[in-house]
Amino acid sequence: MPKFLRIGLHQSNVSGYTSKAWCVRRVGSAVFLKWGAVEVHGAGDGRKVYWTLPPRVKTIHCGTAQRAKDYAKAAIARRRNHRYEPLAGPIAIRRRSAGGGAELEQALATILFVDIVRSTEKAARLGDARWTQVMSHYFAAVRRELKTLRGKEVVTTGDGLLATFEAPAAGVRCATAIREAVRTLGLEIRVGLHAGEYKVSGAEVVGLAFHIGARVAAKARAGEVLVSSTVKELMSQSGIRFKDRGVHRLKGVPERWHLYRVDH
Protein backbone atom coordinates (compact mmCIF):
# COMPACT_ATOMS: atom_id res chain seq x y z
CA MET A 1 0.00 0.00 0.00
CA PRO A 2 1.63 3.29 -1.08
CA LYS A 3 1.74 5.69 1.89
CA PHE A 4 2.41 9.41 1.92
CA LEU A 5 3.30 11.83 4.71
CA ARG A 6 3.09 15.61 4.72
CA ILE A 7 4.90 17.47 7.47
CA GLY A 8 4.28 21.24 7.45
CA LEU A 9 6.30 23.49 5.18
CA HIS A 10 7.62 25.40 8.16
CA GLN A 11 9.09 22.35 9.89
CA SER A 12 10.38 19.15 8.32
CA ASN A 13 11.01 15.89 10.08
CA VAL A 14 10.69 17.42 13.55
CA SER A 15 9.98 15.25 16.55
CA GLY A 16 6.47 15.68 17.95
CA TYR A 17 5.14 17.65 14.97
CA THR A 18 1.70 16.54 13.89
CA SER A 19 0.98 16.24 10.19
CA LYS A 20 -1.16 14.25 7.76
CA ALA A 21 -0.82 10.87 6.06
CA TRP A 22 -2.57 9.18 3.14
CA CYS A 23 -2.66 5.50 2.22
CA VAL A 24 -3.85 4.30 -1.20
CA ARG A 25 -4.42 0.64 -2.13
CA ARG A 26 -6.04 -0.97 -5.18
CA VAL A 27 -7.60 -4.42 -5.17
CA GLY A 28 -9.19 -5.40 -8.47
CA SER A 29 -11.79 -2.78 -9.39
CA ALA A 30 -11.83 -1.14 -5.93
CA VAL A 31 -9.55 1.50 -4.41
CA PHE A 32 -9.18 1.74 -0.65
CA LEU A 33 -8.22 5.10 0.87
CA LYS A 34 -7.15 5.83 4.44
CA TRP A 35 -6.11 9.25 5.71
CA GLY A 36 -5.88 11.41 8.80
CA ALA A 37 -3.70 13.34 11.23
CA VAL A 38 -0.50 11.69 12.36
CA GLU A 39 2.09 12.43 15.01
CA VAL A 40 5.77 12.17 14.07
CA HIS A 41 8.45 11.28 16.61
CA GLY A 42 12.16 11.25 15.93
CA ALA A 43 13.94 11.75 12.63
CA GLY A 44 15.69 9.77 9.90
CA ASP A 45 15.75 5.98 10.30
CA GLY A 46 14.49 6.28 13.87
CA ARG A 47 11.37 8.24 12.93
CA LYS A 48 8.07 6.77 14.12
CA VAL A 49 4.64 7.81 12.87
CA TYR A 50 1.41 7.32 14.82
CA TRP A 51 -2.22 8.03 13.96
CA THR A 52 -3.31 10.94 16.18
CA LEU A 53 -6.98 9.93 15.87
CA PRO A 54 -8.50 6.87 14.19
CA PRO A 55 -7.98 7.44 10.43
CA ARG A 56 -10.85 8.01 8.03
CA VAL A 57 -11.43 5.30 5.43
CA LYS A 58 -13.23 5.21 2.10
CA THR A 59 -13.77 2.58 -0.60
CA ILE A 60 -14.13 3.66 -4.24
CA HIS A 61 -15.82 1.10 -6.51
CA CYS A 62 -14.59 1.88 -10.02
CA GLY A 63 -16.35 -0.85 -12.02
CA THR A 64 -13.28 -2.15 -13.83
CA ALA A 65 -9.69 -2.90 -12.85
CA GLN A 66 -8.38 -0.38 -15.39
CA ARG A 67 -10.54 2.43 -13.98
CA ALA A 68 -9.39 1.54 -10.49
CA LYS A 69 -5.77 1.58 -11.66
CA ASP A 70 -6.27 5.03 -13.23
CA TYR A 71 -8.02 6.33 -10.09
CA ALA A 72 -5.22 5.09 -7.82
CA LYS A 73 -2.58 6.57 -10.13
CA ALA A 74 -4.33 9.96 -10.08
CA ALA A 75 -4.75 9.83 -6.28
CA ILE A 76 -1.04 9.16 -5.83
CA ALA A 77 -0.13 11.98 -8.25
CA ARG A 78 -2.31 14.42 -6.27
CA ARG A 79 -0.51 13.54 -3.07
CA ARG A 80 2.86 14.18 -4.69
CA ASN A 81 1.62 17.52 -6.06
CA HIS A 82 0.61 18.59 -2.54
CA ARG A 83 4.09 18.27 -1.03
CA TYR A 84 3.63 14.77 0.37
CA GLU A 85 6.66 12.52 0.71
CA PRO A 86 6.55 8.74 0.24
CA LEU A 87 6.42 6.98 3.58
CA ALA A 88 8.25 3.66 3.69
CA GLY A 89 7.57 2.58 7.27
CA PRO A 90 4.30 1.70 9.00
CA ILE A 91 1.82 4.06 10.64
CA ALA A 92 1.22 2.70 14.12
CA ILE A 93 -1.74 2.89 16.47
CA ARG A 94 -0.70 3.81 19.98
CA ARG A 95 -1.02 0.97 22.44
CA ARG A 96 -2.74 1.84 25.67
CA SER A 97 -0.91 1.13 28.88
CA ALA A 98 -2.02 -1.90 30.87
CA GLY A 99 -4.88 -1.11 33.18
CA GLY A 100 -5.43 2.33 31.64
CA GLY A 101 -6.78 1.43 28.23
CA ALA A 102 -10.27 0.37 29.21
CA GLU A 103 -11.42 3.70 30.64
CA LEU A 104 -11.89 6.88 28.66
CA GLU A 105 -12.57 10.11 30.51
CA GLN A 106 -15.47 12.16 29.14
CA ALA A 107 -14.91 15.89 28.70
CA LEU A 108 -16.99 18.83 27.49
CA ALA A 109 -15.36 21.83 25.84
CA THR A 110 -15.57 24.45 23.14
CA ILE A 111 -13.44 23.33 20.22
CA LEU A 112 -11.63 25.80 17.97
CA PHE A 113 -10.17 24.90 14.59
CA VAL A 114 -8.11 27.49 12.68
CA ASP A 115 -6.21 27.34 9.40
CA ILE A 116 -4.68 29.71 6.84
CA VAL A 117 -6.58 30.69 3.70
CA ARG A 118 -4.72 29.90 0.43
CA SER A 119 -1.62 28.74 2.30
CA THR A 120 -0.24 26.68 -0.61
CA GLU A 121 -0.47 29.69 -2.93
CA LYS A 122 1.32 31.91 -0.39
CA ALA A 123 4.02 29.30 0.25
CA ALA A 124 4.72 29.00 -3.47
CA ARG A 125 4.95 32.77 -3.85
CA LEU A 126 7.21 33.35 -0.84
CA GLY A 127 9.49 30.34 -1.22
CA ASP A 128 10.34 27.81 1.46
CA ALA A 129 12.83 29.93 3.44
CA ARG A 130 10.53 32.95 3.81
CA TRP A 131 7.46 30.76 4.38
CA THR A 132 9.29 28.97 7.20
CA GLN A 133 9.79 32.33 8.94
CA VAL A 134 6.18 33.38 8.39
CA MET A 135 4.86 30.11 9.79
CA SER A 136 7.11 30.37 12.83
CA HIS A 137 5.65 33.83 13.58
CA TYR A 138 2.14 32.55 12.82
CA PHE A 139 2.25 29.71 15.33
CA ALA A 140 3.90 31.97 17.91
CA ALA A 141 1.02 34.46 17.53
CA VAL A 142 -1.63 31.74 17.75
CA ARG A 143 -0.08 30.21 20.87
CA ARG A 144 0.30 33.62 22.50
CA GLU A 145 -3.46 34.24 22.18
CA LEU A 146 -4.23 30.71 23.36
CA LYS A 147 -2.18 31.31 26.49
CA THR A 148 -3.84 34.67 27.16
CA LEU A 149 -7.35 33.18 26.97
CA ARG A 150 -6.47 29.85 28.60
CA GLY A 151 -6.96 27.72 25.51
CA LYS A 152 -5.42 24.26 25.38
CA GLU A 153 -3.65 23.25 22.16
CA VAL A 154 -4.67 19.73 21.11
CA VAL A 155 -3.00 19.13 17.75
CA THR A 156 -1.52 20.90 14.72
CA THR A 157 -2.08 19.67 11.16
CA GLY A 158 -0.01 21.49 8.55
CA ASP A 159 -1.04 25.14 8.91
CA GLY A 160 -4.06 24.23 11.01
CA LEU A 161 -4.40 24.11 14.79
CA LEU A 162 -7.07 22.63 17.01
CA ALA A 163 -7.59 23.82 20.58
CA THR A 164 -10.14 23.56 23.37
CA PHE A 165 -11.61 26.07 25.83
CA GLU A 166 -13.66 25.62 28.97
CA ALA A 167 -15.88 28.58 28.08
CA PRO A 168 -17.28 29.34 24.60
CA ALA A 169 -16.82 33.10 25.05
CA ALA A 170 -13.09 32.58 25.60
CA GLY A 171 -12.89 30.52 22.41
CA VAL A 172 -14.64 33.19 20.34
CA ARG A 173 -12.51 36.00 21.77
CA CYS A 174 -9.37 33.99 21.12
CA ALA A 175 -10.44 33.37 17.51
CA THR A 176 -10.95 37.06 16.81
CA ALA A 177 -7.68 37.96 18.56
CA ILE A 178 -5.78 35.42 16.42
CA ARG A 179 -7.40 36.80 13.27
CA GLU A 180 -6.18 40.32 14.02
CA ALA A 181 -2.73 39.19 15.16
CA VAL A 182 -1.91 37.18 12.03
CA ARG A 183 -3.09 39.92 9.68
CA THR A 184 0.11 41.75 10.59
CA LEU A 185 1.91 38.84 8.90
CA GLY A 186 -0.13 39.27 5.72
CA LEU A 187 -2.22 36.17 6.50
CA GLU A 188 -5.95 35.57 6.51
CA ILE A 189 -7.41 32.69 8.49
CA ARG A 190 -10.73 30.95 8.80
CA VAL A 191 -11.98 29.70 12.15
CA GLY A 192 -14.70 27.28 13.20
CA LEU A 193 -15.99 26.67 16.73
CA HIS A 194 -18.23 23.95 18.11
CA ALA A 195 -19.05 22.81 21.63
CA GLY A 196 -19.45 19.17 22.52
CA GLU A 197 -18.26 16.11 24.36
CA TYR A 198 -15.15 14.13 23.56
CA LYS A 199 -13.15 11.38 25.22
CA VAL A 200 -9.66 11.61 26.66
CA SER A 201 -7.20 8.82 27.38
CA GLY A 202 -3.80 10.12 28.40
CA ALA A 203 -2.62 12.39 25.59
CA GLU A 204 -5.19 11.05 23.11
CA VAL A 205 -8.52 12.71 22.32
CA VAL A 206 -11.37 11.19 20.31
CA GLY A 207 -14.79 12.51 19.39
CA LEU A 208 -17.13 13.63 16.62
CA ALA A 209 -17.07 17.13 18.11
CA PHE A 210 -13.55 17.64 16.75
CA HIS A 211 -14.65 16.71 13.24
CA ILE A 212 -17.62 19.07 13.47
CA GLY A 213 -15.33 21.96 14.49
CA ALA A 214 -13.09 21.30 11.48
CA ARG A 215 -16.10 21.12 9.12
CA VAL A 216 -17.49 24.39 10.49
CA ALA A 217 -14.11 26.02 9.81
CA ALA A 218 -14.15 24.66 6.25
CA LYS A 219 -17.39 26.60 5.63
CA ALA A 220 -15.83 29.89 6.77
CA ARG A 221 -14.71 32.51 4.28
CA ALA A 222 -11.41 34.37 4.57
CA GLY A 223 -11.37 36.29 7.85
CA GLU A 224 -14.58 34.72 9.15
CA VAL A 225 -15.13 33.19 12.56
CA LEU A 226 -18.03 30.73 12.27
CA VAL A 227 -19.74 28.96 15.15
CA SER A 228 -22.24 26.13 15.32
CA SER A 229 -25.72 26.70 16.74
CA THR A 230 -24.55 24.89 19.88
CA VAL A 231 -21.96 27.58 20.57
CA LYS A 232 -24.40 30.41 19.84
CA GLU A 233 -26.99 28.98 22.23
CA LEU A 234 -24.39 28.73 25.00
CA MET A 235 -23.51 32.42 24.51
CA SER A 236 -26.98 33.96 24.64
CA GLN A 237 -25.96 36.19 27.56
CA SER A 238 -22.42 37.02 26.39
CA GLY A 239 -23.13 40.25 24.51
CA ILE A 240 -21.28 38.94 21.45
CA ARG A 241 -23.33 39.42 18.28
CA PHE A 242 -23.80 36.85 15.54
CA LYS A 243 -25.02 36.98 11.95
CA ASP A 244 -26.99 34.08 10.50
CA ARG A 245 -25.06 32.17 7.82
CA GLY A 246 -27.82 29.67 7.10
CA VAL A 247 -28.19 25.91 7.33
CA HIS A 248 -25.39 23.75 5.93
CA ARG A 249 -24.45 20.14 5.39
CA LEU A 250 -21.11 19.38 7.00
CA LYS A 251 -19.17 16.73 5.09
CA GLY A 252 -19.29 13.38 6.86
CA VAL A 253 -21.42 14.77 9.72
CA PRO A 254 -25.06 13.69 10.27
CA GLU A 255 -27.95 16.14 9.77
CA ARG A 256 -27.82 19.79 8.75
CA TRP A 257 -26.21 22.44 10.93
CA HIS A 258 -27.13 26.08 11.48
CA LEU A 259 -24.02 28.26 11.37
CA TYR A 260 -23.45 31.82 12.56
CA ARG A 261 -20.72 34.36 11.90
CA VAL A 262 -19.23 36.31 14.78
CA ASP A 263 -20.22 39.91 14.02
CA HIS A 264 -17.68 42.48 15.23
- How many helices? The count is 6
Largest sheet: 8 strands, mixed
Order of helices and strands: EEEEEHEEEHHEEHEEHEHEE
The portion of residues assigned to helices is: 25-40%
Whole-number mean pLDDT: 82
Proportion of β residues? 35-45%
What class, by secondary structure content? alpha+beta
What is the approximate shape? globular
Record field, number of beta strands: 15
Query: What is the CA-based Rg, rounded?
Result: 19 Å
CATH superfamily of the largest domain: Nucleotide cyclase, GGDEF domain
Distance between the termini: 48 Å
- Return the domain count: 2
Q: State the CATH class of the largest domain.
A: Alpha Beta
According to CATH, the fold-level topology of the largest domain is: Alpha-Beta Plaits
Name given to the CATH architecture of the largest domain: 2-Layer Sandwich
Poorly predicted runs of 5 or more residues: 9-17, 97-102
GO molecular function: adenylate cyclase activity
Protein name: Adenylate cyclase
InterPro entries: A/G_cyclase, Adenylyl/Guanylyl_Cyclase_3/4, Nucleotide_cyclase
Organism: Bradyrhizobium retamae
